Amino acid sequence: MKRLSVIIVTYRSERDIYDCLRSLWQHCDIPKEQLEVIVVDNSPESDGMFARLRQLYGQELLLIHNTHNGGYGQGNNVGIRQASAPVILIMNPDVRLIEPVFKTAVEAFENDTALCMYGMKQMLSDTVKSPLSFDCTNAMNGYAAPVVSSLCNKLDLFLPRWMYLSGACFFIRKQPFEEVGLFDEDVFMYGEENDIHARMVQRFGPHMIFNRHLRYVHLTLGRPTSPDTQKKMLASLVLTNGKRGISTKHTLTNRLHYFRTRWLSARVKQWLGRNNAEHLAGIETIIKELKSQLQQ
């Protein structure tokens, strides 16, 4: 009987997937027959990567070449629908496990039938902590959200009603996730976790845990979030908020407040020599974009 199904969606991810899977098996602390690993590839061509994965892992992997690249969420949904375990781990290919986490997380779901989601501390390396193990939802005031998020991440203080877990690596119970419709396939990429959090809380309440003692690495150190990525995240947010009756103007205004606070923080860090001009310029670009959209 499977206790955990791991879903990894790839898109031209050969440089990441082998080390990702190696870390997964290296730190597996439940019997292997209780673990199911599903790789869904959205790339137009999967033969080479799949051939090597079959050579390395044989029948230990379920490999699915998606019929089309429907986006990150759609790819995950393909895997989730094939999964046989009651608990799902959504895992990016650029995530590395650095310690055993499966047993603790799965037992948490088994011991608490109301538990819906379970997150862990995100690291940028074995020793560098990420500021984004979780983040404030768009329901929080935009001026306050960056400050609250930064402080709470430093203190490992997760407020489940007001914060969503990082989408890079999180556990979720399959049945309630299916009941709220899985990933929204209208969202191609970015912002999925905020939407999932909102739907799960609305239906089942904030039954979510953040375990600061379990860690994983997300290989984003030195990888800046580009203005183009921010625009895509904003478009996803407008779309998913709109489905819940939140106006575009409200969403854009709240994000403008959010980035104004981010700009002030980045400016102070630049004065202190702890930030670069490129980072500040990126924030200024998205502020201009928000103002432009609000004027339309």
Question: What does this 3D model show about the protein?
Answer:
Helix 8 packs antiparallel against helix 9 and helix 9 runs antiparallel to helix 10. The chain has two domains: 215 residues, Spore Coat Polysaccharide Biosynthesis Protein SpsA, Chain A, CATH 3.90.550.10; 69 residues. An eight-stranded mixed β-sheet has the order 3-2-1-4-9-6-10-5, with helices on both faces. It is α/β, with parallel strands linked by helices. It has ten helices and ten strands.
Shape: globular
Structural class: alpha/beta
Spatial ordering of strands, largest sheet: 3-2-1-4-9-6-10-5
Going by CATH, the architecture of the largest domain would be Alpha-Beta Complex
Helix tally?
A: 10
Residue windows where pLDDT falls under 50 for at least 5 positions: none
- Write down how many β-strands occur, each being a DSSP E stretch of 2 or more residues: 10
- Roughly how many Å apart are the termini? 55 Å
- Largest sheet at a glance? 8 strands, mixed
Assigned CATH class of the largest domain = Alpha Beta
Helix content: 40-55%
Radius of gyration: 19 Å
